[in-house]
Amino acid sequence: MSVPLGWLLRRPELRLKVLAGARHQDREVTWAHSIELADPSPWLAGGELVLTTGLRLPEDPDARRDYVRRLAGAGVAAVGFGVGLSHGRVPAELIEAAEEAGLPLLEVPLRTPFVAVTKAVMERLAEQQYEGVVQASRVQPRMTRAALAGGARAVVRELAVSSGTRVAFLDSEGRIRACHPPDATVPDLDEVTGRSPAVRAAASVSSGPDGVVAVQQVQVGPRAHGRLVLVADRSLTAVDHLLLGHAASLVALEAEKPLRVRDEQHRLNGTILRLLLEGTIASPAARDHLVEAGFPIREGVRVLALEDGSPRGTLTAVGEALGERGLPLFGAVLDGAAVLLLPGGHAATAQAVVNELADRQKTRPAAGLSAVHELGDGPAALGEALTALSAARARGCAEVVHFASLAGQVLVTAPQTRAVLESLSVARLGPLAEYDDANDTELLASLRAFLEHNGQWEAASAHLGVHRHTLRARMTRVQGLIAADLESAHVRAELLLALTVWQGSGRR
Questions:
Q1: If residue 303 lies in a helix (H) or strand (E), which one and from where to where?
Q2: How are beta strands 301-307 and 331-334 bridged, if at all?
Q3: Can you give 65-113 as a three-state secondary structure string?
């Protein structure tokens, strides 16, 4: 806020007289300050009406001119020189220098105390502050009514009309969603607020060829909806900033309406999914809710389990990906994983969602997909998805692991049984690996071929490219090293599982 210099000059009780710079009476005075230093410029911020009696004014005419030039350089609005104390009249050098610098120089008569000038400025600033509060109190209800009646567009128009500025609302992609006047343009905001969204301040103000530009983020918590931009051909007041902030809040609330409804729908869908996977909701009730939500169930359902550090963040991202495909989100966090329900015929959608998550979050989640099930088989579908997820995690697999692809591998995939088999593989196969390393033999490879060919000597030896007698000799050595009977079906099964885990752990 500031007081026009012309307003002060029109106050008859102050009896101020303009001696120089009469053409600049439109200057704005931000404060009136009495100071008698020989060089007060280091203590001035600009915009002040400097009041002095010339007590420390030098005698040298050139030094007096420098005094005025320094004040002009400090950006003061005007100088008030009190006569009748140190000087009977304003020195001519000051008048000449002020006229040259375009700095208003006022004569303050002896009967006008400096405190009267300061008081007049302070009272006018206080009046302006009160007027601003009154103006804001009148405009804010109009803005609120505009928001209720016409949404963001009406808020933008009300702000522009009330402040006499140009206003635009830009979405998070930088597209203009509403503006007033209708043909209003906005400057390049990347130049104003920075190119990286991560470093953009919640609010910023800058000046340039387009005028004064104020930018306010439209945001609720971590969710940003865009930016509100106000462009003025004048300096902005505290009221302008207050109204801009109020408008941004109203636009944010308007943008949040459909998102709040969506979030409530997701919470309800998540509850239904949990009940479905726990088997505690009747299939007809679950079916009715799924159909009302637009979820296709004609081909049955699948369960997709994802693990990527932040299950809830994953659910949010997946919800957006599914929404783009016209599918509602039925998701919940279970056993530390993001668990989703997909239509039975959407196996390809599972992989597409994982690919999009990898692109958006720069990390690829582990993913497991169940087989197709009826609605009443929720617990079984969840178990399959989590088992497939364990396999994906163990393999470090970039693709979605389908439960159907785990035939013959479920035991080595489940964490509980895998730990036992890891210990068994070290105990049973470790001696063979050590023997192979020390003697350059192929006992482990021979054992695997023998077991995978069901103990058929001819088939196993042909696979290895050795004579069957050579293979028999190797198996005799294997039995001696591990003290196991290879004729036993139970022993063979145990060793085959141990070999699967041994190889899956990256061992030779």
A1: strand 301-307
A2: unpaired
A3: HHHHHHHHHCCCCEEEEECCCCCCCCCHHHHHHHHHHCCCEEEECCCCC
Give residues with Cβ within 8 angstroms of 383, minimum separation 6: none
Name every residue whose Cβ is closer than 8 Å to that of residue 297 and which is 6 or more positions away in sequence. Answer: 287, 290, 291, 343, 344, 375
pLDDT in tens, 346-366: 888 888 888 888 887 677 788
pLDDT of residue 420: 60
pLDDT of residue 119: 93
pTM as predicted:
0.43
Mean pLDDT of 183-202: 57
- State yes or no: pLDDT of 410 exceeds 50: no
CA distance readout (Å), 475 to 168, 430, 502: 82, 16, 19
Mean per-residue pLDDT for 177-192? 75
Give the residues across from 50 on adjacent strands: 33, 79
Q: What kind and span of H or E run contains 355?
A: helix 347-361
Crossing angle for the helix pair 238-278 and 114-163, to the nearest 10 degrees: 50
State the greatest distance between any 2 C-alpha atoms of the chain, in Å, as a whole number. Answer: 131
User: Cis peptide leading into 197, omega within 30 of 0?
Assistant: no
Count the residues in the chain: 508
Q: Given its phi and psi angles, is residue 156 left (phi above 0), alpha (psi -120 to 50 degrees) or beta?
A: alpha
378-395 and 238-278 are packed helices; what angle lies between their axes, rounded to 10 degrees? 110
As a whole number of angstroms, the distance between CA 300 and CA 345 comes to 8
Give the separation between CA 69 and CA 64, rounded to whole angstroms: 9
132 exposure class (CB count in 10 Å sphere: 0-12, 13-18, 19+)? middle
- What whole-number percentage of the chain has pLDDT above 70? 89
Amino acid of residue 50: V
Q: What is the pLDDT of residue 375?
A: 87
* Residue 328 three-state SS: coil
254's tokens: 């308007």
> What span, in angstroms and rounded, lies between the C-alpha atoms of 251 and 225?
9
Measure the CA dihedral 56/57/59/64, to 10°.
150
The mean pLDDT value for 185-213 works out to 66
Q: How far apart are CA 136 and CA 243, in angstroms?
A: 7
Q: What is the residue-wise DSSP string for 244-294?
A: HHHHHHHHHHHHHHHHHHHHHHHHHHHHHHHHHHHT-S-HHHHHHHHHHTT
